[in-house]
Amino acid sequence: MTTGHRQCASKGKSMVAVVSGNGLGLDNSSLRQLGQGLGGQAAIGQGNVAPVVNTATGNLVLESQDEGLIFDGLSLDVLRTYNSQGQLSGSAGWQFGFSRSIGGLTGTLDTAGSTVTRTDDDGSAVTYSYNATSGQYVSTGQSGAQDTLSWSTAASTWTWTDSANRQQETYNASGQLTVLSDAQTGASYRFSYNGSQLSQITAGDGDALTFTYNTSGQLTGLSIQAIPPGQSTAVTRQQV
């Protein structure tokens, strides 16, 4: 339920963006509702961190963008997120981008009364209920469209569909995001893991982001491999 917006300012400048809503993160807030959005604009401060406060819950979300890819109009931003009320598992409450997951099954899979939860990068968690008529798990999003989750026994994968834009996400049996695709453009990204750690993201055109970690599991490197326009040889640059 939306309660409206207000702007926090300091010395005439908006330092904190404001949203409202009862959910965690930004996806379940007024930011995603039709005709709504941010109250104020998050200032990019030290470390390129943008703060957003939810006036209904007092929740603080911090986001920082490190890198990104774009392929056939499908953009992919590498974000780090802190959610003060979320259940993020990263160091000191920070979560690295693409940590979307499927889990929390209650009841018997694909049976009336059962539910499953999708958690987004920013800690937003949405519960989907099984619909026996459609054979899918369904949740009504902020836009009014019904987003769906379906389980494939043959492939042992979950498929999440955003009904508003027809983008899809595929998750493996462990609940890890493995494919992000756009049915309208055919663009796609594939995610590779080393155990629980994201190791690489590869776009349909071959561009790739590669992540490296130390023995403590901390991210130490991010490299970008891309083929510049008009060239045939990939160029690699180090971000971290």
Oligomer kind:
single chain
Strand percentage:
over 45%
Order of helices and strands: EEEEEEEEEEEEEEEEEEE
- Number of distinct helices: 0
Q: What spatial order of strands do you see in the largest sheet?
A: 7-8-9-10-11-12-13-14-15-16-17-18-19
Structural class: mainly beta
The 3D shape can be described as globular
Task: Provide tags for this entry.
6-stranded mixed β-sheet; 240 residues; 0% helix; 2 domains; globular; 13-stranded antiparallel β-sheet; 19 strands; disordered N terminus; mainly beta
What does this structure look like?
The chain has strands at residues 8-10, 13-19, 49-54, 60-71, 74-83, 94-96, 101-106, 115-119, 125-131, 136-140, 146-152, 157-161, 167-171, 177-182, 188-194, 197-203, 208-213, 219-226, 235-238. With 240 residues, it is mainly β. The protein folds into two domains: 1-58, no CATH class; 59-238, no CATH class. Strands 7-8-9-10-11-12-13-14-15-16-17-18-19 form a 13-stranded antiparallel sheet, with no helix packed on it. A six-stranded mixed sheet has the order 1-2-3-4-5-6, with no helix packed on it. Strand 10 and strand 11 form a beta hairpin. The N and C termini lie far apart (40 Å).
